[in-house]
Design a protein that fits this description.
homodimer, about 240 residues, mainly alpha, Methane Monooxygenase Hydroxylase, Chain G, domain 1
Amino acid sequence: MPDHISKQFDMELENIRTRVLQMGGLVEQQIRAAMEALQDGDIDRLDRVITDDAKVNAFEVEIDEDCQHIIARRQPAASDLRMVITVIKTITDLERIGDEAQKIARVGRSLYQSSRYPTPRFREADKMAKSALAMLHRALDAFARLDPTAAVELAEEDVMLDEDYASELRSQITYMMEDPRTITLSIDTLFICKAIERIGDHAKNISEYVVYLVKGKDIRHTTLEDKKRETLPQEPA
Amino acid sequence: MPDHISKQFDMELENIRTRVLQMGGLVEQQIRAAMEALQDGDIDRLDRVITDDAKVNAFEVEIDEDCQHIIARRQPAASDLRMVITVIKTITDLERIGDEAQKIARVGRSLYQSSRYPTPRFREADKMAKSALAMLHRALDAFARLDPTAAVELAEEDVMLDEDYASELRSQITYMMEDPRTITLSIDTLFICKAIERIGDHAKNISEYVVYLVKGKDIRHTTLEDKKRETLPQEPA
């Protein structure tokens, strides 16, 4: 293959990688905006998060098309093919994280529009969102640096986020039993926490695709011990 | 390309299509088993649904690998490439439907193990599960027959399933307010209905990939009117 064609192919691959990271940045911004607007009771900003989800979707459709053109025209092999497949899977998870941010904004909007409550604090949801955002950031960073070690960290953090959700569920059930007037607010709070918990799942997925990309191994559906063995440097036996 | 190589390629493509349908059959069976065992309070069967999710996951990993081998060795173009990409996306949704069936079984198991209730009826959840199963069956059928018209039907049915969920949510909130002792059972019921509602989303996704496969158009994130225009026969202007 002539050198300039190969260089152009490199540029095309680099271009989709960059756009995945831009899409990831937009999705992080959507989560942050949804949580801040939720805390502030800022309905206009919640509306903006809802409509801006179309931008996330457009990213997915465009990058998806580019990947398919690259497969069709370049017929990539080995690690180039794994990169393209990784991108196709990663943008699906990013798009669904975008959907979760939109859900948070929708719950927030309906909650403030009913105006039955003073601005609630959502303290636990806020703490969970910070963890989920850190997980997403770590996953995108792992994608950018081709770092397979993030998968183990994120699997561990995902367990903690699941526990945070379970604990918040127990608290909200207690509140509801103590004061049934808070039931609607508690249910809304649980929806928000559930959306955040799912963001953690998607971040974990992305970090697992990076392992596949770098190591050529599919570590989804494996135990934490297996993930450690596949991704971390091993001590000599 | 010699005829026999092309024939072998056809067989490989046919083989992954068949395995997607087998995986789909297994996933349908998981949903049905989870709902029946939930109605019967059959903890052993709920346990089996939970452990059998590993079979669904194994299908995903295997078919995924086969798709990547096909892309790498056969360098498919045009509709063959679209078929492979469609399969990669479809099995992701099937795997997540499997997760939802597993979630239903987990909620059921913890509910019966706590044994605080007589066997509840889950009447609305059962009705929703029947709709979601019909949607999944239609989506798999559309994949088998390369029928793009299912996408419009499933988009409409998905709206109805979302409405069923919203209506069940309102009912459960009313029950909880009337009798706070039912809060835990109501929350469990809502988790089950939410899992079913998501099965409908995934079935809709699968039917949209079929449109992409047959028409080469990406109709995700479009309105129902757009979906109709892209998939249904048009009257002459």
